[in-house]
Design goal:
Strand content: 15-25%
Helix content: 10-25%
Distance between the termini: 45 Å
Number of helices: 2
Largest sheet: 3 strands, antiparallel
Strand order of the largest sheet: 2-1-3
Order of helices and strands: EEHEH
Shape: elongated
Radius of gyration: 23 Å
């Protein structure tokens, strides 16, 4: 079951797990005012990626060692 971040028109934001059909058929209501006029809240995700230093050449055998060797 997916988890939804929702905001009601009364200003209350909340998170809950509900079925997709409950969300699509507006069977979810605000726990504060009871309204089912809810909007999704999109939260930003922090994504961290690693980069190899430019002076280190990539390993030609990365498919074997996973790129973790000292090559």
């Amino acid at each position: 079951m997916p988890s939804y971040d929702l905001k009601c028109q009364c200003g209350h934001e909340f998170n809950l797990m509900a079925s997709m059909s409950d969300r699509e058929n507006k069977r979810i209501s605000c726990p504060v005012c009871g309204s089912n006029a809810l909007d999704p809240v999109f939260k930003s995700l922090g994504i961290i990626s690693s980069r190899r230093s430019p002076e280190r050449p990539s390993c030609p055998n990365a498919h074997v060692c996973g790129g973790g060797c000292a090559h």
